[in-house]
Amino acid sequence: MEVEESGDKRTSWSAAPGESNSIPCDHIGKKRKQDAAPEPVIRITEDEVEDEEGEIMSESLKESEEPSNKRVKPVSKSNSLTGVITPAKTPALKRIGLSISRSISFRTDARPLPPAPLRSRPKASSFPRRRNSQCWSDTVESHDLTAKEIKRQEVIYELTQGERQLIEDLSLLKKVYYEPMLKLDIMTESELGQIFGTLDSLIPLHEDLLSRLERLRGSEKTVGEVGPTLMNWFPCLEAYVTYCCNQVGAKALLDQKKHEKRVEHFLRLCQESSFSRKLDLWNFLDLPRSRLVKYPLLLKEIQKCTPPEHPDEDALPDALELIQSIVAEVNKKTGEAECQFYRRGLTYLEESQRLPEIQQSRFLYCHGELKNNKGQRLHVFLFELALVLTRPGEDRDGGHVFNVYRQPLPVALINLEEIPDGEAGGGGTFRGAFTGGNDKVKNCFRVSSRGRSKAHSYSLQANDSFSKQQWITCLRQAIVQSRDQTAQTSRSQFSLHPDPALYHIAELSLSSDTEMPDHTSR
């Protein structure tokens, strides 16, 4: 075995692929030269064997001086050096052998190094992109304003930033959703026009307000009067009547189109992208309405932070009253459009179900899913003047229809009964409390009609206690308003056609001694 030291103080042995693992010796005990096959090469570090080098060399000399009749045991292929080194009696040699066997192996053939693992390309962040939460105080270096005035500037700055963010969202909605779906023919131009409505007209409207607010900022980035600017701009929000009224049909069409594979795939990819902030298409389409109802809240905050004798003191109340009336008008028109939309979707199984109160209703109080006493899921509509129970279905085109279930109830004739939780059904009225075999009711109430030839009673169950309270509140409100309206109508009809026997009462006075004429003979 031959030792070679390189310049970097490393010792190595190597073995060629075709080399025999036995070590032949001649008759005088000297090793024969083998030119064809080089010696095995094994690499070890010098610091591992520096303190044991002397002992190894002395042991090797003793072995070379042994008699020539001693046969050398062939060395079998191994991945360690323990089979090559003669067992030593000294503990030091055992230690170096174990150390070498752990760190060195024979290379019987040329094997390339394993390729370095490729670095995978980092995926795009799936976290929603955060909005800039900068405050007005962050935009100015110094100021000498009071705490109340600082709060006022913060609210005005929030108003301005809200306009900027809404413009960004509406522009993104057009570029990322509308235009690609039109170019890729995912939806037709008519369908997209129905879903997006008058969205294009809202972007320049809010850009106008943003430019007005930015012009109000002085050299110190503070805003003085904001009331007159808002008073002049708020009438532009009447354009929201058309947009919000269209949303009822837009939502129904969008829900219908989501069942198509191409539409669902496109919308899912957009929602998973970072620009969407985990919002779906409808969340973006509903942003203008959410912005509209926020204007009164912002104005109230500005008014609260406006000190007395400020130039805005008189203008802000007028602006607040104006925006509240606009929001109320938009809500009213939207409610009428929603009522008309669902009224058109009703399918009557019997002609007796067509109550005049349904057609006379101008708005909806609420609607949603409830269960009947058989556990069947119903979609219930509480119109202004009628309560209608339906079963959802689809028409030939895949659109939603509502098949009227049982007899609708006029709101003015409804008796409402709240059923406490835990009350036993009894008498088979509740089939397992509408669910799996439990006789205790939960989140239930009962509605019945009065004053008609045939009474109808329906026991209904809400999904949870919160939903139940919403239904009960809306029903009570509808019942009271409907009865008040009925009574008012009766009084007005009576005033137009009074009883002739009471004509003389209007001619009397408290100080009159005129005798009352006798009308009983008439």
Automatic annotation (TrEMBL):
GO cellular component annotations of the record: cytoplasm
Protein name (database record): Rho guanine nucleotide exchange factor 3-like
Superkingdom of this protein's organism: Eukaryota
Domain DH span(s) in chain numbering: 151-333
Domain PH: 357-480
Gene Ontology molecular functions: guanyl-nucleotide exchange factor activity
A Pfam family that the UniProt record links to this protein: RhoGEF
Cellular location(s): Cytoplasm
Biased composition (Basic and acidic residues): 1-11, 60-69
InterPro entries given in the database record: DBL_dom_sf, DH_dom, Endocytic_GEF_Adapter, GDS_CDC24_CS, PH-like_dom_sf, PH_domain, SOS1_NGEF_PH
Acidic residues compositional bias, start-end: 47-56
GO biological process, one term: intracellular signal transduction
Alphabetical UniProt keywords: Cytoplasm, Guanine-nucleotide releasing factor
Sequence segments annotated as region (Disordered): 1-76, 109-135
PROSITE patterns xref list: DH_1, DH_2, PH_DOMAIN
